[in-house]
Amino acid sequence: MSSKPVTTCPACGTRNRVPASASGTPRCASCRAPLPWLVAAGEENFDSAVKATVPVLVDLWAPWCAPCRTIGPLLEQAARENAGRLKVVKVNVDNAPRLSRRFNVQGIPTMLMFQGGREVSRQVGALPKVKLQAWIGSHLL
Q1: Which is the catalytic residue, given 9, 12, 28, 65?
Q2: Residue 68 falls in the annotated catalytic set
Q3: Is 65 marked active-site?
């Protein structure tokens, strides 16, 4: 999880490395367009991953969870559509049991919205696309 994921710029197609945490929001090295900010985090880097200047949606999921696999592409789409305005952090609960306990996760998927490094909202279970978009939109700056 320490390696930076590579994201293709939707504007020009340049491949960029995107850090899990940064002081601003990621931009394309070539055209400077905002990049989708979708990263994986674990127990070792969670606190730094949720500190951002934009709202952070944390997806607590597991690979064996069918609803998690259903909502995953919708969250990736939300990260693309809200580039520069939203960060999505994916946490595999099987690899981060202390985070599950810390946030009292009773079911997955659980989505937490953070602003200023603090949880401000929570959704448990897979939401239909329209409701998920509305929930995310209500937290965007």
Answers
A1: 65
A2: yes
A3: yes
